[in-house]
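Following up on my earlier thread - several people asked me to post the actual chain instead of describing it. Fair enough. Here it is, all 136 residues.
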Amino acid sequence: MKRIIKNITNNDIINGSFIMPDWVTEIGKSAFDGCSSLERIVIPNSVKKIEAFAFRGCKSLASIVIQDGVKKIGIYAFASCVSLESIVIPDSVKKIERCAFFGCENLKKISLPKKTKLGYDVFYKYPPDLKVEYRD
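Reply from S.P.:
Thanks for posting it. Predicted structure:
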């Protein structure tokens, strides 16, 4: 059964964090869109899908921990998260859709499994010194 979280606002963010309930199986389309006060989040292993635009425009989001369990990251999911410097994509992720990290201009390092399928322009408008580490 799908249990989707959506419509999160800055009022739901406490001290820069949002505690994701462990009953959540999907982060809905635009769920955190524009939550400028979100600085860090842990996505629990109960989450299987991060929908399109889920964290778009979360300009203060600097720390994202995605636990093993997520299978798909949607289009523009982390677009314009300008404070994000690094991210580790867990082995469970099978697909990252197009432009998922569009405009993450301070992203320096991303680590992901070699088997993960990448959509068109996943890292579009990324910094020239971005290091992409592919793991076996």
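The longest strand covers residues 109-113. That should answer part of your original question.
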